[in-house]
Design a protein that fits this description.
21% helix, five-stranded mixed sheet, 6 helices, alpha+beta, 228 residues, globular
Length: 228
């Protein structure tokens, strides 16, 4: 895929894959994925950032670590005691699968390169953003990849700079896409979220035709297997 320069300029590069592997092990993701800690470390040792690039994200395949299991691992530096959560009206969150145009490596762990939070696309709708990303040679992030990003780098989720992960969509029985599109943002503690969840990371959804000034569209340059 053709790589374009990301506009997520306020974030530091991610740690090397081996450091990310230790974070996953510390959070217990290896147990969710049915892997041993040593298997994760071995895969991370084999993974290297592409030449001339830093900050690739180490992600677990969504079939091994679904969004519902990963969301409680989310934290914000400002509120470290408040775990992430999935909104109550998204009980089918794990049925949101990669779009047909999103190819995942057939490995337990893989690298996502050239991350961009998509700030420049704030106030676009998902229906507008997807063809634009495709035209740029970029691939939209999956919901699980977005969660992995924030687990590794909580600063990637900021108030008024949150993001959608439109690489994950739900197909209805007839084959058409469900109009909901998943996103990561920060709870205001209103409605069914509950006041106790104010400022906690939140997995929710928006309509595919709606625009939000505070939601960008996270994307990547490419994905590749962790093992070379």
């Amino acid at each position: 895929m053709t790589e374009t320069a990301p506009d997520t300029s306020t974030l530091s590069p991610l740690p090397e894959p081996r450091a990310q592997a230790e974070r996953l092990i510390e959070a217990g993701v290896h147990r969710i994925a049915g892997l041993s800690a040593e298997e994760v470390r071995t895969l991370a040792r084999e993974a290297q950032n592409p030449p001339g690039e830093s900050g690739a994200l180490l992600a677990v395949h969504p079939e091994r670590a679904p969004a519902s299991a990963l969301a409680p691992l989310l934290r914000r530096d400002e509120e470290p005691d408040k775990p992430g959560f999935v909104v109550t009206d998204m009980p089918d969150v794990d049925l949101f699968a990669p779009l047909d145009t999103v190819a995942l490596p057939d490995t337990p762990l893989y690298l996502v390169t050239g991350l961009d939070r998509g700030d420049a696309m704030a106030n676009w709708s998902p229906n507008e953003a997807l063809p634009a990303l495709t035209a740029q040679g970029r691939t939209p992030l999956l919901l699980t990849e977005g969660i992995h990003w924030v687990v590794q780098q909580p600063a990637a989720l900021e108030r008024n700079r949150c993001f959608m992960t439109i690489g994950s969509r739900l197909r209805k029985a007839g084959g058409a896409l469900d109009a909901r599109t998943p996103a990561l943002w920060i709870s205001n503690g209103t409605g069914r979220d509950g006041r106790e969840r104010r400022n906690a990371p939140k997995v929710g959804w928006c309509w595919a035709g709606n625009r939000h000034t505070w939601l960008g569209f996270a994307s990547a340059a490419d994905r590749r297997a962790a093992a070379s």
